[in-house]
Every structure is written in C-alpha cells, then in structure tokens.
Amino acid sequence: MDKADIVSLKYSPGLMKEIVSLIECFRDHGIDASGHLHERYLKLAFESGENFINANYFKKGNIAKTKQCFKIIFKKSKLVLFYNSHPLNLLILFACIFFTPFKRRALVLHEPLKQQPFKNYGKYGFVVLLIEALNKLQSWLCTDVILLSPRASKLYNESRFYSRFCELHEARILLPSPKCKNTLSERKYFSFFGSVVATKKIDWFLDLVEYSFVTGSSNKFLIVSGSELPSDRIETLLSNGCLLTVVNPKVLTDQEISNWLSQSLAVLSMHKSVTQSGVFVECMRHNTPVICLDEPGFRQFMDGCGILVSSEYNKEELLIAMQNISAQKEQFARSAKNIYFDNFSTNNFNVFYGTILDKIRSN
Predict the structure, then answer these.
(1) pTM tops 0.70, yes or no
(2) Measured between alpha carbons, how far is 300 from 203 in angstroms, rounded to an integer?
(3) Sign for the pseudo-dihedral over CA of 114, 285, 265, 179
C-alpha cells in the first residue's frame, strides 16, 4: 500500500480536526497515511476526550525532534505533506530533496499573504512577515502547494517570490458531517465563536449585547471561546440582565462546539483580513447562517447562507441582519447546508486531492 506522511510541527489547536480528517480521507482512499504532530496535540486530544487518530508525536528536546525528522525523511512514503509552517520543515524538505527525491513534497497554505499586517496586527506584524517569508521559501522546496480557498489561490498568484514551478492545487478545508443533529426550532442564540485575536476582537459583540438589551430586544447572545475574555465587562452585562450566555473552558471539544453551533440562529464573524475562516466552515457544517464583514475572504463562499455587513460597530445594521435571519431561518440554513456539501464535506476529497492521489499511485 502507498504511504503518506502528514506533518504538523507547529501546535495550532484549531487545526487538529482538519488534520485528523485529512489523514482519514487519505486512508479511505487507499493511502496508508500517518501523522507526525507536535506533542501538545496529544495533550489536547486527551483533555478534550477526543478519540484522536494514532500518530507519532514530536517529543521535547532538539535531539528527540531531530530523530523524528529523520524518520520522516527516510521512511518509504510517496508523499510528505506539511499542514502548517515551521522552521524544521526546511530541514525535512532539504533532506528529502537530497536523500529521497522520489517523494512528493506538499505544503498546505490557509493564508499565503496577510494584507496590511501592521495595521491589523500591530507589532505582531513583524512575525506575520517572517511567517510569510518562511512560506515562500518552503514553496521553492515543494513539488506541490495546496491552497484552501479561491481567495488563497488569488493571493498566492498575486504575491511576489512564491514559487511558480511547483504544482498548485486549489482545495478546501474538509470535515465530516457532525454527529449532533438539532432542529431549527431549538436554535435561539446569536453567537460569537472562536479565539479573540488582534483581527477578531470581541468588544463590538459586547457592545451589541448591551445595545440590544437597552433597546428592549429579546435577542439571546452566546460567546463560545477558549480565549481570555474581558470578565469585568461580561459580569457587568450579566448583572444588568443582558441575555448573554458565556462558554469559556480551557479546552473546547468538538462535541461542545457542535452542540452550541446547533443552538445558534446565526454566528457573527467580524474577522478582518480573512483569507479562509475555519469558523465559517464549521457554521456551514452545522447548517448555521453567518453574519460577516463584507470582505473577500467571506464573499468567496457567501451564496444565500448569511448576510454581509459593512462594519462590526454599526449596531443598527447588525440588528437588522439578525432580524432578517430570524425571519428566514429555514432558507438560510438550507443554503448553508448546500455550501457545506458542495465545498467542505469529506465527500469532496477526490475532487480536490484527486490529482495528488494519481501522482502518488503512479510514482
């Protein structure tokens, strides 16, 4: 049986589900895929109670990591696929070119370019530029680059210094259908999901909760996040009687995410400078409409599954969008379901990865 190695040396908890799904998709199509992952993924799987797929974990210490790298290099697999960037990727790529040139070397990119990094990320913009430079260098060492959205493909082709000699594949984040099945009648929240970061703040959402309460609206709001939240502001809102539920565990399980998404009338996602939103994919997976900023990263998939707004601070516009979704929830949910099955379902694996599968089998 042909073998493949899926490598993720950088710990990013939001990617765990995507990596597991990709490994399982390769296995379902006759490829013996193995995971080589940062050790914190193992801890995350244990804490969250997930039945995580068997994988090799990179242990602490440079010597241990180096040994793991050499196992990947000399293993008789036909594909080594990097699911995110890490400096050690370069060591593996250079060594594979020299010692095992028959291997296909693939890099998955969610965001090949972040626009206006200093405006959107402040001082962290320097780190953003370093990661971008690392991505570009890796692209020259790969035979294949996999871009996870039309927007990502456009940014890659418009960016300077990315390799034009590797094969480009436009794919999608692929996830299986959720096990949790809630009816539309059980949906009652307008929700904020995911991490609180520089480009995805939460102050506007709390302002909206307060404004909705002051104007006498009966809208119920929900926050589901593993990030540190402004507890004083939230406690003030709750003590004033605002209709807000907060879910803020250290580790969010897939079951919890599914449960709360399935109770949401819509998710409000005001992520700026987004290329591909994982929260958007999860919403489509759970037939949950979205209210998003009018940005290219959201527009690329919006086809009746939600409403685009001009600003996260225009509370009147947000309330009107919420009213429209409440009035037409069946139609919006049906569109979200269609977008999931057309783009993000694991049933589409052969559509997006078929060319790579053919090359593995013919190698």
Answers:
(1) yes
(2) 26
(3) negative
